[in-house]
Design brief:
Number of helices: 4
Largest sheet: none
CATH superfamily of the largest domain: DksA, coiled-coil domain
Strand content: under 5%
Number of strands: 0
CATH topology of the largest domain: Four Helix Bundle (Hemerythrin (Met), subunit A)
CATH class of the largest domain: Mainly Alpha
Distance between the termini: 32 Å
Radius of gyration: 19 Å
Bound molecules: zinc ion
Number of domains: 2
Shape: flat
Low-confidence stretches: none
CATH architecture of the largest domain: Up-down Bundle
Mean pLDDT: 87
Order of helices and strands: HHHH
Helix content: over 70%
Length: 120
């Protein structure tokens, strides 16, 4: 991977991270605002559902934010785009689809089929 590719992914990941952090802030303020006006028990119930839903989204966002941060760290360390399992280069095409990945498609596929077979 050359300098140009690295910069491309760095921009992409930084942009995604900013976007996620911005959306995250919106979710938090939405939750805080709706806390103030809960009198009806029915509202309360649907609020709980919404809240669980939002928490699940937050959880997923949080995990993605972590993955993006790790990918950015790998860029700084010069390890970005290298498979953590076999040490080979991950294809740029794959990285364009999943820039946070740290495994090449071969290792990922092997890992997933093992998960399926052994429930690991
Ligand atoms: Zn690999």
């Amino acid at each position: 991977m050359d300098e140009k590719d690295i910069l491309y992914f760095k921009d992409m990941l930084t942009g995604q991270l900013k976007e996620l952090l911005r959306v995250g802030d919106d979710t938090v303020s939405l939750m805080q605002n709706s806390d103030d006006r809960l009198t009806d028990p029915a509202d309360q119930a649907s609020f709980e559902t919404d809240r669980n839903f939002m928490l699940r989204i937050r959880d997923r966002e949080y995990k993605l934010i972590n993955k993006i941060r790790k990918a950015l760290e790998r860029i700084e360390d010069g390890e970005f785009g290298i498979c953590k399992t076999c040490g080979e280069d991950i294809s740029v095409e794959r990285l364009k689809v999943r820039p946070v990945t740290n495994q090449c498609i071969k290792c990922k596929t092997r890992h997933e089929s093992r998960e399926r077979i052994f429930g690991m």
